[in-house]
Amino acid sequence: MSRLDHRAQPPADLLIRGARVLDPREGIDREHDVLVRDGEIAEIGAPNSIDAPDGAEVLDGEGRHLFPGFVDPHVHLRTPGQEHKEDLDSGTRAAAAGGYVAVVAMPNTDPTVDSAPVLLSLREAARREARIPVGFMASITRGLGGEALTEMAELAQAGALGFTDDGKPVHRAGILRKALQYQRLAGRVICLHEEDPTLSGRGVMHEGEVSARLGLAGIPSISESTLIARDASLAGYEDGRIHIQHLSARESVAAIAEAKARGVKITAEASPHHLTLTHEALLERLDTRLKMNPPLRSEDDRQALIAGLLDGTIDCIATDHAPHAREEKEVPFEEAPMGTTGLETAFAAVYTELVLPGVLPLELVVDKLSAGAALVDLPLPAVRRGEPANLCLLDLESSFEVGEAGYESRSENCCFAGRRLHGRVLATVAAGAVAYRRRALSVVGAA
Ligand SMILES: [Zn+2]
Fold first, then answer.
1. Which of 15, 261, 415, 430 is least surrounded by Cβ atoms within 10 Å, i.e. has the fewest?
2. What's CA 76's distance to the chain center, in Å?
3. How far is the CA of 163 from the centre of ligand 1 (A)?
4. Catalytic residue positions, numbered
5. Coil, strand, or helix at residue 324?
6. Block mean pLDDT (10 aa), the chain, length 447
7. Nearest C-alpha neighbor of 163 from the set 239, 232, 245
8. What is the pTM of this model?
9. How far is the CA of 270 from the centre of ligand 1 (A)?
């Protein structure tokens, strides 16, 4: 994972005893002992079959689950420029607490990550501050201005994992077409925030019955889906590779399915909040933590996203973790910035709202929470001998109220705040080192 950076940590020597190991891609779903030696998965055996070597710490996995660690291809770490919301240390601490072993940060920072020097200095900062490996995307256009392309080949050379103007669409088709042509040289995926600003207008929530009742300006679903259709067409024509970010509407899922069917190299992600919440939540309380872009849509849209995950139209789950300071969100709904945090609650939200009621199988969720690695050409974490340890240990029985004990993130704008969720991350091992450990985690002993 040489295009990812983090602060080097001592490699773990760890025996996780008797956890239910679930790695759908490896075809594993049973109790095992897993031995990590010098940061590498050294042995996988029947429960109580592996002796703890000298100096190894033993974690009690009984009644707990061990998954390949999660990978998030879409987070906002807000650095450089907005460290009052988040930074590399706090953002990756939140990620590790959510079971993540790698995250990909978006370039809509201040300055924008649109040149090799900005990217290289961020990568250097990550080697000092990040607790888990972080990769960076660079912008498609300079300063996210939508006019002039960045030096994509040079940015790829400098380690950009992909290109995106996330937060904004690439409004002009001709510019995206050019980016797709340069992609042949630069490689790397082009990720797209799909929204037609002439349709979104001044909308602050989904356009539908609820916006009408509340008297708020709406963002129609077609704002997203019409641009997806346009961009899928462009990608097909130029034989480029695109990824659609934070899918929210039924029409969008249909547009992607249609493009995939005709062979366009297109992938898509959905967020835990779009999969589990709808605009109805705003009827209970006009809470600015429920304001994000794209907005929470209707139950029909949510069902389409779930169906898209099940049939493979949607490739992965990404949080779009978007921290904002409290005072920025504590303003009238119309004025609040868009975005919710999500790294610390992603698994628990999806597990509680979709796995427990039997809507999605657990193995599908575990797969989709790390499948995003593939779209940025990173290896998928695997519970396999000889692999670097990228693991998370969870207690699915244990529940918690979101926010009751604060957050690891610097920001508190979590759309799930106050909800009781099941499925607690107990420990995360990222790139072979322990990146997170819950205080209450019982340690059987150190040999
Ligand atoms: Zn985003």
1. 261
2. 10
3. 13
4. 320
5. coil
6. 88 97 98 98 97 94 98 97 95 98 98 98 98 98 98 98 97 98 97 97 97 97 98 98 98 98 98 98 95 98 98 98 95 95 98 98 98 96 98 97 94 95 98 91 55
7. 245
8. 0.97
9. 11
